[in-house]
Amino acid sequence: MPSTLPLGDPAPADGALPPQAAAGAAGRGFSLYAHIPFCAVRCGYCDFNTYTAKELGGGASQDAYAATAASEVRFAASALDASGVPRRPLSTVFFGGGTPTLLPAEDLATILTTAVEEWGLEPGAEVTTEANPDSVTPESLVTLAAAGFTRVSFGMQSAVPHVLRVLDRTHTPSRVPEAVRWAREAGLDVSLDLIYGTPGESLDDWRASLDAALACEPDHVSAYALIVEEGTKLAAQIRRGQVLDVDDDDHAEKYELADAVLADAGFSWYEVSNWARGDAGSVRYACRHNLAYWNGGDWWGIGPGAHSHVGGVRWWNVKHPTAYAARLGEGTSPAAGRETLDDETRHVERVLLQIRLASGLPVAELGPESRSEVAGLIAEGLVEGAAALRGRLVLTLRGRLLADAVVRRLLA
């Protein structure tokens, strides 16, 4: 079942934000996340807030979802206005899920058009949708491009049939290059998402998936270690001994292989799990929407269970599509709770997120005790010495494998 929402303070029905949210907003970028909570099949490893038609039940409709989401866009614009947050054009938009492309392309276009009507788009704005390879057609991708989408991120996960079966993925490997070709013909940039460490996946299987992904000539590749979440089908299978558990050493070996293969193909890492085509430091093909998250930017998340952040104020929507639609139908905020981040929490989050970026964490962000750890991190080969001398902590390959340990040292 989908993961639980965090605890927090009550969120006001009118969506009003405290003065902190408006302070300095004119100098910050603004992004939109649109959560599309529908899937044809629930994958065995997934604990996202998504629903199949069977799980959805009565009171919520995929057919009505675009209108409901568009109404939250309008609610968001009014709430920000009333809170004194200046209107800013959107620098990035990201449709995630779930499987956004289970909705008709025209519905996704409706949501995007409503957002553009309210806020506009910065010149060259990045507009991405996630998609399964078997949830698009040449025609739907053309419709998305015409509506203003610039990028599609396909959930490839693996090129090996037995690995896809363990993950409960519905597409066949041959569908991926076909979908990528259609996206290219529509004029869209392409990212491919991969998962490594699936029970039963050999190192040769993982290499085959990397080779197949690169054969599609994508602009961007994300590679995530499989995490077994409690409450998922996969967790139950492992507990019953039906499949092997994941292995940290296996994950490390596969990460090192991914980094080497992608680097040889002209990709540079810019975040621990993400590589973009081009030289290090270039962000032409990096996911700018995710960079906005990692750099603590402002965004409004629409959809059930979606999280938002503006100026150190974070809130999250009710989870179920029925409750979400009911709130908006009454003209009230769909937020279930919120929190105002204090300086210490914001510092911890900056360290957690910016240390994962190739651009690095400014040493100046650290207090004296944390700065005293830097020499040891260099000596242990966890951060780059030359970059540290220039004032930024940049993880080495070994440091990327041990990023959590580096963070613990810096926050101790």
UniProtKB/TrEMBL annotation:
Subcellular compartments: Cytoplasm
Major location (coarse): cytoplasm
Superkingdom as given in the UniProt entry: Bacteria
Pfam families per the UniProt record, alphabetical: Radical_SAM
Signal peptide positions on this chain: none
Domain Radical SAM core: 24-268
Keywords, in A-Z order: 4Fe-4S, Chaperone, Cytoplasm, Heme, Iron, Iron-sulfur, Metal-binding, S-adenosyl-L-methionine
InterPro entries associated with the record: Aldolase_TIM, Coproporphyrinogen-III_oxidase, Elp3/MiaA/NifB-like_rSAM, HemW-like, rSAM, rSAM_sf
Function: Probably acts as a heme chaperone, transferring heme to an unknown acceptor. Binds one molecule of heme per monomer, possibly covalently. Binds 1 [4Fe-4S] cluster. The cluster is coordinated with 3 cysteines and an exchangeable S-adenosyl-L-methionine.
Family assignment from sequence similarity: Belongs to the anaerobic coproporphyrinogen-III oxidase family. HemW subfamily.
Protein name per UniProt: Heme chaperone HemW
Organism annotation: Sinomonas flava
